[in-house]
Amino acid sequence: MRTLEWNPKNNSLTMIDQRRLPEVLEIVSYRTHTDVAQAITDMVVRGAPAIGASAAFGLALAGFESAAQTPRDLFAAYQAAANILKAARPTAVNLAWAVDRILVSALASDLPHADDLRVFVLAQAQKLADEDVEINQRMAAYGAELISDGDTVIHHCNTGALAAVDWGTALGVIRTAWEQGKKIHVLVDETRPRLQGARLTAWELSQYGIPYEIISDNMSGYFMRTGQAQKVFFGADRVAANGDVANKIGTYMLSLAAHDNEIPAYSVVPTSTVDLSLAHGGLIPIEERDPAEVLDIRFQGERVTPLGAKARNPAFDITPNRLITGIVTENGVVYPPFEINLKKVVKQ
Ligand code: MRU
Hints:
Blueprint (H helix, E strand, L loop, with lengths): L3 E4 L4 E5 L10 E4 L2 H9 L6 H18 L5 H16 L6 H17 L4 H31 L7 E4 L14 H10 L5 E5 L6 H13 L3 E4 L4 H6 L5 E4 L3 E3 L4 E4 L2 H10 L4 E4 L5 E2 L16 H4 L2 E2 L2 E2 L12 E4 L6 E4 L2 E3 L3 H10 L1
Parallel strand pairs: 4-5, 4-7, 5-6, 7-10, 8-11, 10-15
Antiparallel strand pairs: 1-2, 2-3, 8-9, 9-14, 12-13, 15-16
This protein binds 5-S-methyl-1-O-phosphono-5-thio-D-ribulose.
């Protein structure tokens, strides 16, 4: 199944509960937009494209929840739901992008009956989800050309099918290269504190039969320095107009080490992740999450941190454009100068 799917039998949004993997593959179902917003905040669903598509279906749910009899009243309900959904997580721009895209098309539709608008909004959400899969496969085709037979690739966070509607961004590239017959090996950053790499990327790689080993985030410099890795791939939650990349915390240090070792580092993003309204990465809002995500860990059954310890937990960092070799999009690979070249692919 896809990471998230609309269930037409009872007008609900069905998704994989990513908090339970790899132990349990649990499917959950939501019938209200507020529940979808909470699921995004709680990381039942996570990854920039996946939360965008979830929010799009969340808007569709808001339409079925509303008793509005006129398109005008229904549109007001969509706007109220949009505000709730957009506030669920701040960094990934795909969330606001998806919600705004549906709102704009709903407003332009000028349909005479509220029920027609409900059906239209659901169809728009489904279209956005279907496009996500097709876009990921186009990115994967471009990105796979950057991987050579025999490469060992370091990958950060989870960027696979679970982070999108299907297929994925950076991990989609790796999967396509593998399916092309390239013998590759993946070093999977465990990605503290939520461990998306160790839990989700490793699980996905196991499903595809791609050879991998999990490393803790602080090992990647060692593997690059000793010639045991040839490429670095990650996704992004937002790319500024100058090519600065906001991605899962740790991406900056990984890219620094790659740069120092002259190892190419690629960010793989749909153009919906590029935010041309922000001149540079310093303007991207960084989500700071509950310190418990850092503190509540156990090693061999024992609590690791002293009771009462404090922690900081920024969920993302900014990698400056000078550390990024190329940005892979569905319209091709973008190289520096990003200020000029990103605009060209986003406009297409
Ligand atoms: O906090 P998360 O798990 O939503 O963060 C996800 C990432 O940082 C991914 O690498 C990112 O969304 C880009 S690829 C889908």
